[in-house]
Amino acid sequence: MRVDLFDFDLPDDRIALRPAQPRDSASMLVVRPGEGLDDRRVSDLPSLLGAGDVLVFNDTKVIPAQLRGVRQRGEARAHVDATLHMRVAPDHWLAFMRPGKRIAVGDRIHFGHDGSSCFLGQLDATVVEKGEGGQALLGFDLSGPFLDEALHAVGHIPLPPYIASKRAEDERDRADYQTIYAREEGAVAAPTAGLHFTPELFAALEAKGIERHFVTLHVGAGTFLPVKADDTADHKMHAETGSVSQATADALNAAKARGGRIIAVGTTSLRLLESAARADGTLAPWSGPTEIFITPGYRFRTADMLMTNFHLPRSTLFMLVSAFSGLDTMRAAYAHAIERSYRFYSYGDASLLYRAEMSDG
After folding, report:
1. In 3-state terms, what secondary structure has residue 238?
2. How far apart are the first and last CA of the chain?
3. Which of 52, 163, 314, 337 would disulfide-bridge 342, Cβ 3.0–4.6 Å?
4. Is 187 helix (H, G, I), strand (E, B) or coil?
5. Nearest to 3 by CA among 295, 344, 283, 297
6. Are 126 and 138 in contact (CB under 8 A)?
7. Contact 152, 185 (CB under 8 A)
8. What pTM was estimated for this model as a whole?
């Protein structure tokens, strides 16, 4: 499909720079294909679901994956930034380097050499491979939990570019850019639909008999990359690693068998469920990398509903929601959201989408 079909104009002042307080006070646009739009709040979610319905959350935890360093090549030094986006070994990470033209295979990069870390600032890496678009494979001198500890000491929360370009990351972001149920470390971007949930909202959902189950997909920085191709067929997704446990697969299969609805909280949860789905729509335990790229025409096998934030124009995420509820439906929903001053992107408001039986666009 032509990528320009997924373009729209977004006023700059619609981009949220901080989350709503409290989190579940954010606006939520309910989108039922063929039935119109409903302006609600996230705190209304229990009234929109019923006993036996199941929410599926991504329990990945954001790590301080933004690193500032100095490239050393002989006597030559240059400042570079790295955004880690996928761990491939205990001591190896794929990263997006800026500026990528300053690095070459064999270069040594010294991160956080300000004496602030528990390793006296000694977080060093070697450029093992150099790819396209500024991507590189970094081999760190530290490994496993020692590397993790060093990253927490010298790294920064990797705020999305559309926030980072407007303000610096600060201490509030360490809490704001993390779900309350985050557990499995490895993401470099938050599963942002989950940022809206509070202990109070969890209690209200539980009192209504609505279950919650967890999957893990470590969100990569590639989620922020715009689609530069003119046609979706020419776009390559960056792989992200994840897992669905036997217990979660069994619980979701049982829910569907008894007629309960599956509500994916976030596009990451939905992409992982679709990666783990069998042809008949049942789920199997699953683990590994996924590069699933969902565009209109895709036939969903798992979720009945999707709770998600408002996404970038021409992004793979807007393509996914258009596949889920229909392109015409989502273009109308986004126009409504812009007119009604909904807040967009990672710290913005939410939408609750019902799955279209047939795509309308």
Report:
1. coil
2. 11
3. 337
4. strand
5. 295
6. yes
7. no
8. 0.89
- Residue whose pair of structure tokens reads 């609600």 in the numeric block: 40
CB 20 within 8 A of CB 13: no
Tell me the one-letter amino acid at 135. Answer: Q
- The identity of residue 159, as a single letter, is L
Q: Are 109 and 122 in contact (CB under 8 A)?
A: no
- Which residues share a beta bridge with 98? 81
* Two structure tokens written together for 276: 């783990």
Write out the chain's pLDDT in tens, 361 residues: 999 999 999 999 999 999 999 999 999 999 999 998 999 999 999 999 999 999 999 999 999 999 999 998 888 899 999 999 888 999 999 999 999 888 999 999 999 865 444 444 569 999 999 998 889 999 999 999 999 999 988 998 888 888 888 898 888 998 999 999 999 998 988 999 999 999 999 999 999 999 999 999 999 876 666 688 899 888 888 788 999 999 999 999 999 999 999 999 999 999 999 999 999 999 999 999 999 999 999 999 999 999 999 999 999 999 999 999 999 999 999 999 999 999 999 999 999 999 998 544 4
Place of tokens 């790229």: 293
At position 339, the amino acid (one-letter code) is E
Spatial contact of 140 and 95, defined as CB atoms under 8 Å apart: no
Are 183 and 152 a contacting pair, CB within 8 Å? Answer: no
